[in-house]
C-alpha cells in the first residue's frame, strides 16, 4: 500500500501576527501504513485458521478465518502511526514535542539508516521503526531538560520530512 503523504507547501514568510489557524498549519503529514506484503501475511494467517478448523466444520473454518483476517487487519490499521509536523508541534505516533524543542533533521538512507538503527543508535533516543520502511529521519531535540538526544523515525520521504523540519527550525530561530 502506498503511504498517505502531504508534501510541505512552500510556506510564506512568517508573520508575528499570524492567526491561530495559520499557526497550526500542517507542514508535513505522513501515515506509515504497512507494505503490501504484510497484507499477504494477514491473509495467510486467516487461511491457516480456515485449514485448521475445516476438517471439523467448513463453516467454522470460514468463520474463524474471516474473524482472524478482520481482527488482525483492524489491529494493524490501529497500530499505524502518523507523522504530523505543524508550526506548533511534532507528533510521531503517540509521541509529541513542542516545535520550539525540535532542532535540525537529517534524512538517512541505506547504510546510514542501518548504522543509525544499530551500532550508531543512542539508547536514550525515541525510536519509531517499521519493518517495511527502511529509510529514517533523525530529528535532534534541543530541550535542555529532556535527556532524549534525538528522535529516529521511519519515513518513506526522509528528505521531505527533514526539509520541512529544517525550514521550520530556521524560522523559529530567526
TrEMBL record:
Residue ranges of the TM segments: 34-56, 62-85
Polar residues compositional bias: what residue ranges? Answer: 1-18
Top-rank taxon of the source lineage equals: Bacteria
Q: Which UniProt keywords apply?
A: Membrane, Transmembrane, Transmembrane helix
Question: InterPro entries from the xrefs?
Answer: DUF3093
Where do the segments described as Disordered lie?
A: 1-22
In Pfam terms, one family for this protein is DUF3093
Q: What is this protein called?
A: DUF3093 domain-containing protein
